[in-house]
Specification:
Order of helices and strands: HEHHHHHHHHHHHHEEEHEHHEH
Number of helices: 17
Helix content: 40-55%
Strand order of the largest sheet: 2-3-1-4-5-6
Structural class: alpha/beta
Strand content: 5-15%
Distance between the termini: 64 Å
Oligomer: single chain
Bound molecules: guanosine-5'-triphosphate, magnesium ion
Shape: globular
Largest sheet: 6 strands, mixed
């Protein structure tokens, strides 16, 4: 009996020891796993391009998009196209632009505007009239002045109020607005030939094109022109989204996602967060053990407002968020890779939209270089810990895989250091 009792004790001791060893091994395994994983956060305000950067990492590091992701993208892309056109249709009314509006030459604008001023009661946009009036009578008024844009906007508005609009385009607009939203679901997530025809008719209208040229004044997806260009292809029954389509697709992120990569033999865990104001409270729980931050700023939005309150400037929002987030005590020694993103849009925009309208301290000749340097400097000056952490600026075009591949070749070394 004594012997039996002793073997029972031995067995219990062996089990306990074995459990302890298992636990140690597990802890060691976990320690080894976490030790070699480089944790990277992609931060930035809403629609700055964070998820697009993550998509590029999937392409560049060989994971790509799964067939399920591709299939799910299809209806999101069709909806992106529909909502783009619906935004334009609504803006035609809010900006008071008549369908068929033809942008006048400078001479035509001056003449027409003089007529409108003479019958001042034809419209009541008093502020715009007063601000444009001086310029119209100014013989130095030239083609590059924003004053011309004010004058044309007044003319469009005056025409919108006085003319009976082209009924066929209004019918097309009605068809498209009813095809969006719930109706889109009813149609099985497909866009029929009738709706596609209406979209084409509207997109080719001179008034809608003029409205598109004023897109900084209302909310419109950055990829609108891309969807319009590819509308026939993406409305085909057998349509399968391409990599480029998925890069241009807009889906707001509502939860933090973790994606794992192996980059040059080392493991990365990349966290993509939702950037809209309501999403930001979820960020802090991921702030531990971060190796580097990629901070994305939509620099082309220097003359646009954010969606959340429709009044805060997009780049100002990004600067404020950068200041509060990247100076967080947990990030005192965390390097920040700053992506001034959407430079393809920025390059086009600076030809017509003065930066100084929104950033009065920008006093240089407006070139791509002077504007990007100005914004880089603004971000760098917000670094509260310049001795402990470095901000590495890059100018990015997130929807362009070659450009991002090039940027990442430089960035990977910084991230892994
Ligand atoms: N033209 C252009 N479009 C871009 C660029 N970067 C992103 N976009 C587009 O901008 C839109 C928004 O990009 P997202 O990556 O969804 O933005 P996000 O920062 O993840 O937004 P949230 O998830 O709301 O925080 C998408 O339609 C992208 O295709 C760019 O460099 N150029
Ligand atoms: Mg996102």
């Amino acid at each position: 009996m004594g012997c039996a009792a002793s073997s029972e004790v031995d067995q219990t001791a062996i089990t306990a020891t074995s459990k302890a060893i298992d636990k140690d091994l597990q802890l060691e395994r976990r320690r080894q796993e976490t030790e070699h994983v480089t944790k990277l956060l992609i931060l930035g305000s809403g629609e700055s391009g964070k998820s697009t950067i993550l998509k590029q990492m999937k392409i560049i590091h060989g994971v790509g998009f799964s067939s399920q992701e591709v299939a799910l993208s299809r209806s999101a892309i069709l909806l992106n196209m529909l909502t783009s056109m619906i935004s334009l249709i609504h803006a035609m009314d809010t900006l008071e632009i008549p369908y068929g509006f033809q942008v006048p030459t400078l001479e035509e604008a001056k003449e027409a505007y003089a007529r409108v001023v003479a019958q001042n009661d034809a419209y009541h946009s008093k502020t715009a009239v007063e601000s444009s009036e001086d310029h119209v009578n100014d013989p130095k008024l030239d083609d590059t002045l924003p004053a011309k844009q004010d004058v044309i906007a007044c003319l469009a508005s005056s025409e919108y109020r006085s003319m009976t609009q082209k009924s066929d385009l209004l019918e097309s607009a009605k068809l498209i607005t009813s095809a969006g939203g719930v109706e889109f679901g009813f149609r099985g997530g497909e866009i029929g030939e009738d709706v596609l025809g209406a979209i084409t008719e509207l997109w080719e209208d001179s008034g809608v094109q003029y409205c598109y040229s004023r897109r900084n004044e209302f909310r419109l997806l950055d990829s609108c022109a891309y969807w319009m260009k590819h509308r026939a292809r993406i409305c085909m029954e057998a349509y399968v989204p391409t990599q480029e389509d998925i890069l241009n697709m807009r889906i707001m992120t509502i939860n933090v996602t973790e994606t794992k990569f192996v980059v040059r033999g080392s493991k990365w865990a990349v966290y993509d967060v939702g950037g809209q104001r309501t999403e930001r409270k979820k960020w802090a729980q991921h702030f531990d053990d971060v190796h580097a931050i990629i901070y994305v700023c939509p620099v082309s939005g220097y003359d646009q407002v954010i969606n959340e309150d429709a009044k805060t400037n997009q780049v100002l929002e990004s600067l404020n968020l950068f200041e509060t987030t990247c100076n967080h005590p947990l990030f005192k020694e965390t390097d920040v890779i700053l992506f001034l993103n959407k430079i393809d849009i920025l390059k086009e925009k600076i030809k017509t939209r003065p930066v100084s309208d929104s950033f009065p301290d920008f006093a240089e000749t407006q070139t791509f270089e002077s504007v990007s340097n100005y914004f880089i400097h603004k971000f760098q000056s917000l670094n509260k810990y310049p001795n402990e952490k470095t901000i590495y600026p890059h100018l990015t075009w997130a929807t362009n895989t070659d450009q991002i591949r090039f940027v990442f070749a430089a960035v990977s070394a910084i991230i892994m250091k």
